[in-house]
Every structure is written in C-alpha cells, then in structure tokens.
Amino acid sequence: LLAILPDENGSLYGNVKRIYETDIGLVSQCCRRSNVFTKSNQILANIAIKINAKAGGRNSVFDDAQKSLPVVSNKPAIIFGAHVTHPSAIDHSATSIASVVASQDWHEVVKYNGVVSAQGHHDEIISGLKDIVMELLHAFEKGSNKKPEQLIFYRDGVSEGQFTQVLEKEIPEIEKAWKALYDNEKPQITFIVVQKSEICHPAETDFFLCGHVEIKGPSRPVQYLVLRDDNNFTADELQGLTNNLCYTYASCPRSLSIGMSFFSAFSDNLV
After folding, report:
1. Which CATH entry fits the domain spanning 60-269: 3.30.410.40, 3.30.420.10, 3.40.50.1100, 3.40.50.720?
2. Which residue in 30, 145, 188, 241 has its CB near the most CB atoms, within 10 A?
3. How many angstroms separate the CA atoms of 107 and 18, rounded?
4. Domain ranges of the chain
5. Could you report the per-residue pLDDT of 142-198, keeping only the tens digit for each?
6. Are 200 and 206 in contact, with CB atoms under 8 Å apart?
7. pLDDT for the residue 77
8. Is the pLDDT of residue 253 over 70?
9. Is residue 13 helix, strand or coil?
10. Contact 187, 178 (CB under 8 A)
C-alpha cells in the first residue's frame, strides 16, 4: 500500500503504520505529498528502492559472492543482526524493544527476515532469543531451500561490562535453538559485538572499520569484537566480510558505517 500523507501529518503517519502493518497485515510505504510530486529523480529513486525491498526484491547483489563473502560462501551460512532499543531515561513505563534479523537467501545474502520482541524495561540481554532464532532458521530454510551449516551473529549495543552476560545467556540460547531443530547438533557460531570505541582490546580479537562514505564532517570508526569464532575466520576474511556487508543496505545505494546494514534496513521498515 502506498500512502500519500500531508507534509504536516502529526500522528497520522504512526497510525497508518500501526493499522496497516499490524492490524491488517499489509506492507506499506508512506510518502509526504511534496516528495511524491517532486521533480527530484533521487527522491523518487529512494522511494522506489524502499518499496522494492519491502516487496521482497533485491536492490544490490555481490558481483562475485565467492570473493566478497569469504567463508560464508563456502557452505550455507545464516547471518544475524540484533539490537535492543530502549525508551528514554525519564520514561519509566515503556518497554525496551529487541529486533533480530537474519539472512534468508544464501549465498547472495541480501534478503533478510526479522522478528521484533518486547523486553523488560531497559533490559539489554535479549529474552526469548531461542524462539526468535528458531523462527529465523525456519525462514532461512524456506528461502534458501537448505539447512544452514554456519551462523554469524552481529550484536549491536552491548557494553564491555555485559560481555559475560552475552556469553552466558544469549549464545547458549542460540545453541539451544540450533540443537532443537537439528537433532542436538552443535552449531558453528561466530559472534561479533559491534561498538563505537576508541582503542583496540589488548587481548581479545577485535578490529576497527570505516565502512561508510563520509558526506560531511569527521568519520568515527566502528569497533567489532569477536567473542566466539567456530568458523575459523582469518582476520582478513572477517574484516572483508564485514566491510562488504556495509554495501548491502536496501534503502540507500551508499555504504553504511556498520557491517550489519541489513539490520538498519529492517529497522527503517518498523517506523
């Protein structure tokens, strides 16, 4: 559904999204009236690629998947992105929202399915992750007609003080989901935390990346910290994979700063 809204629409945008996306179950694209009747081809192109992505299309593919997706292209792999959004500090009643997405089209890895789940107030560790991962694994099998053999998980928003909680609570939930579907088989997991930071860790495996095109102002690199790697990535392979994923953002033809741009695209569709 294409909804053309007044430029000053107040709460109308939120109501349209809520009714069509949740109550009725229709995918929608909202546009301001001035943007629909614009003479700017760039604005119209941006609207078109958003509609194409929401309709299940691909806006970009890798020219050489074997080269651009090291390790991932060797055998069926599912790539996850996860983040928890919290209410403002002065809002003591609203819940936090966890969003988890996962690829469903190996080996091109440009189409993603997503799950949104309400969490406890300001809880960073994702609850119910086992069921979420199981749902996304099913979507991968349906989309790729294959069972995944390796799992790469990008986790955004976790502070260094929460690494132990992630290792003890979230990763075991991922393992439980995998074993429940695949006859108690041990999953091959690479788990990467995404942060904005200043220095490399003295002992852990981590790296910095400026994956985006800087339009204005200084760049701030993103830090990636590898908490677990069963898939035996080399440093070059993991950095190359992460950088190349920055170019798969469905709503813009540019690269983004974070190599889980698929998650950003999904988040955009929620609002």
Report:
1. 3.30.420.10
2. 241
3. 33
4. 2-39, 60-269
5. 999 999 999 999 999 888 889 999 999 999 999 999 999 999 999 999 999 988 776
6. yes
7. 95
8. yes
9. helix
10. yes
